Amino acid sequence: MTLIDAQAASSPDLAKVKTDRRCRTLAKSCHHAVVARTRLRLGIDLDGVVADFNGGWTQLHNNEFGGRLTPDLVTSWDGLHTLGGFDDMEDFWAWARGNDERPSIFRHLDLLPGALDTLRALDAEGHRVVIVSTKPDWAVHETMHWLAENEIPTREVHLTFTKYLVDCDVYLDDAPGVLPELVEHHPDALVCRFVRPWNQPVAGAVDVRDWAEFHAIVTEQTPRSATGRAD
Question: How many CA atoms lie within 13 A of 161 on its CB side?
Answer without folding.
Answer: 2
